[in-house]
Amino acid sequence: MLIGLLKHIVYPPKSVGEKKLSEVFSGKWVVITGASSGIGEALTLRLIKARANLFLIARNEEKLKSLCDKAQEKGCEARYKVIDLRQRQELDSWCETFREELPNVDFLFCNAGKSIRRAINDSIDRMHDFDRTMDLNYRSMVALSLALMPSLKRATGRIVYTSSVSSRYPFVPGWSAYHASKCAANAWCRTARRERKKLGVKVQIAYMPLVYTPMSAVNETYKKLPAYSADEGACVLLKLAMSNKFRYKPWWAL
Ligand SMILES: NC(=O)c1ccc[n+]([C@@H]2O[C@H](COP(=O)([O-])OP(=O)(O)OC[C@H]3O[C@@H](n4cnc5c(N)ncnc54)[C@H](OP(=O)(O)O)[C@@H]3O)[C@@H](O)[C@H]2O)c1
User: Fold this and answer.
1) Beta-sheet pairing, 107-110 with 78-82
2) Average pLDDT, whole number, for the chain?
3) Which ligand 1 atom is nearest residue 40's CA?
C-alpha cells in the first residue's frame, strides 16, 4: 500500500487519449530508433493505433518485421531498417540515401540506447565501452538528425531525444560511459534549441526517469524501485512531442 502510494507520488500515472493521438499522428511520418524493445516498442504500438506511418530502426529484424506487419494490417505505411547504429561507416553511407527515401518526416524519435555500468577502475582495458555508448547514445542521434534535417524542415518536423534524468544529477559512480554519452546528446539538443530559428526544426529532450524495460531489468535493485511501465515511458515521449515544451522532466528532478 505504502509502495503503491509512493509510486503514485513519485511516478504520477502517464497516459494519452487515443483520439488525441490520432488527431496529431494519423498519416504523419514517424521515424523511431530502438523500436524493437522497451520504450521504443511501446511507442511504436501506440503510433500504430494512431495510424501513423512508421520507419523503424534497430538490429532485431524479426521484431521490426512483425511490428511493420502489424502496422500495415492497420492500414499504416511501415518500413524498417536493420542496422547497428554504432557502425559509423555503415550508418553514414545509409544516411546519404535515407533522406531521399523519406523526403518528408514529421517526427524523429531518437530513442535507441545502451547503458553500461562499470567503474572507471574496472575499465582500464575497455575503451570500447566508452566508444560504443558514445556512438549509439550520442553520435547516431546526431547523424540521423543531420541526415533527416531537410526532410524534417519540409514537414516542420520535430526531433525528440530520450535522455536520462540521471544526467541532471551529481554523477553516480559506475556510470561514466553512459552519463558522458547522454550529456553529450543533451548538449547537442540544447544548442539546437538555441539555433531553432535558423534550423527550422524543433528539438526536444525527455529526461526519462526509471522505466521497467529489458535495459533496466539487468539491475536487480531497479526491479524493486517504483518506475514507469514501457507504455508510460512512451506516453511521456508522445506528450512531449505534442507540446510546445523543450523538455520533459519528472516534477521532482532538479
Ligand atoms: N529504462 C530506463 O529506465 C531508462 C531510463 C532513462 C532513459 N532511458 C533511455 O530510454 C531509451 C530506450 O531504452 P529502453 O529502456 O527502452 O531499453 P531497451 O528495452 O533495451 O531498448 C533499447 C533499444 O535500443 C536498440 N539498440 C540498442 N543497441 C543498438 C544498436 N547498436 N543499434 C541499433 N539499435 C540499438 C535496441 O534494439 P536492438 O537490440 O534490436 O538493436 C532496442 O530497441 C534509451 O535511450 C535509454 O537510455 C531508459
Assistant:
1) unpaired
2) 96
3) 16
Does the pLDDT value for residue 74 go beyond 80? yes
- Give 218's contacts (C-beta < 8 A, 6+ positions apart): none
Q: What CATH number has the domain spanning 2-248?
A: 3.40.50.720
182 pLDDT exceeds 90?
Answer: yes
Q: List the domain boundaries for the chain.
A: 2-248
Residue whose CA is at the smallest distance from ligand 1 atom 20: 215
Q: Residue 13 C-alpha to ligand 1 middle, in angstroms?
A: 22
Q: What is the pLDDT of residue 1?
A: 72
How many C-beta atoms surround the C-beta of residue 177 within 10 A? 25
Out of 10, 14, 31, 37, give the residue to mutate to test ligand 1, the one with the largest number of ligand atoms within 8 Å of its CB. Answer: 37
